[in-house]
Amino acid sequence: MPLEWPPETVLDEDMIEPWCQPVSNQVLDFHGDPLKAGLVVFSDGNHHMALLESLKAFYRRHPRVNDIFYATTPPHPIVRLLRTGAIRLGNLTLSIRPHVFISPPQVLETLKNEGYLNRHRLLAQNRGSVLLIPRGNPKKIVALADLMRQDVRLFISNPDTEKTSYSGYRRTLEGMAGRQGLDNEAFCRDVFGETAVFGRRIHHREAPEAVAYGHADAAIVYYHLALRYTRIFPNRFDIIALGGTRTDPEPPPENLTAGIHMGVIRDGGTWGERFLTFMQSDIAARIYARHGLRHRRDISETPLPRLPRNRP
After folding, report:
1. Phi, psi angles (nearest 5°) of residue 286
2. Does residue 116 belong to any structural domain of this protein?
3. Is residue 204 within 8 Å of residue 225, measured between CB atoms?
4. In angstroms, rounded to a whole number, what is the distance separating the alpha carbons of residues 197 and 156?
5. What is the pLDDT at residue 286?
6. DSSP per residue, 8-63
7. Residue 73 Cα to chain centre, angstroms
8. In the chain, fewer beta carbons within 10 Å around the N or the C end?
């Protein structure tokens, strides 16, 4: 059975008719009403669970925003959407411009050089990667050496369409394998060779689906993603930590971490700067911590601005 992803929209409108057929007709990473929304956010999808809760909190504080439309794809599609102004979702063409862009710092630096934004700042940092496995661990995977077995298939994001995550995941696996004394050449041959399962373009959806459907026996994903999957599908998945424990990861240097940055596009409209200020607040910090990420408040000594008390 396909994974039944929970709704991910800022407004809970029970009167709106859903139109969805699993596998053949789903749009999971574009959320909300682009015509009604006063705020449009383009974001990479890896922290979508924390972003959604933050957007809901922002909406409760500023209901006059009406709705918030947000995208949570890998960087490439939303960068193209920013540059061209349109994207095709099946047979639907969507034309929309963002007020805020959230992505890895190198992506935002490119957009800054192209004139789309003046600056960007740190939002949060992940806590390294883990292995996502089926509940019950049927292949008895306990260490990285088990990934070298011919009966074990590892899912990893696509090296062409998701270069940033693939590079980070692969370097983490190679580094951790070296830390455990495994031969690098043999490890790469056995893990990333014929048995490897590569995603197509949206690994934060594809990884759990590959493990759930039995197409892969394990997947390497960021800790906060695996935490999300075990929370919403508790009977389907489990976690193997790569440093620390499944509930308290302590990634060694070989388990790479990465930052998430944010910036306002052009003038940000009415709500862009207010949303960036909100995302630096204690409220957002608690949300991101609850979802397994380190907020900038916890990794930066830069004073954070106070939230305005008056609603617009």
Report:
1. -65, -40
2. yes
3. yes
4. 6
5. 96
6. --SS--TTSPP--BTTTB---SEES-TTT-SEEEEE-STTHHHHHHHHHHHHHH-G
7. 8
8. N
Residue 253 corresponds to which tokens in the numbers above?
A: 């240097």
Q: What is the CATH number of the domain that holds 49?
A: 3.40.190.10
pLDDT score for 309:
40
Same domain, 153 and 233: yes
Q: Are residues 219 and 150 in the same domain?
A: yes
In a domain, 12, yes or no: no
107 and 191 together in one domain: no
Strand arrangement of the beta sheet that strand 30-31 belongs to: 30-31, 68-72, 39-43, 100-103, 259-264, 121-125, 294-295
Structural domain boundaries, residue 136 = 129-241
Contacts 24+ apart (CB under 8 A), 297-301: 299/122, 299/125, 300/122
Q: Tell me what percent of the residues of the chain surpass a pLDDT of 70.
A: 95
Residue 238 tokens, joined? 């489990």
In single-letter form, the type of residue at position 130 comes to: V
Q: Is the same domain home to 262 and 114?
A: yes
Q: How many domains does the chain have?
A: 2
What burial class does residue 304 get, using C-beta atoms within 10 Å of its C-beta: 0-12 exposed, 13-18 middle, 19+ buried?
middle
Please report whether residue 304 resides in a domain: no
In DSSP notation, 244-271 reads B-SSSB---TTS---EEEEEE-TT-TTT
Q: Please write the tens of the pLDDT for every residue from 300-310.
A: 544 444 444 43
